[in-house]
Design a protein that fits this description.
two-stranded antiparallel sheet, 40 residues, 1 helix, flat, alpha+beta, 20% strand, single chain
Length: 40
Amino acid sequence: HHPDIDIRYNKVRLVLSTHSKGGLTELDFGLAERIDTLAE
């Protein structure tokens, strides 16, 4: 996973991708779900 992280005053934005696969993989989606759970 290669996240791009954008931190602002009142929000954080993460963009995930797997460069070696040329885009998103199931692992990226799984990580996104776990991050969403932590953010709640």
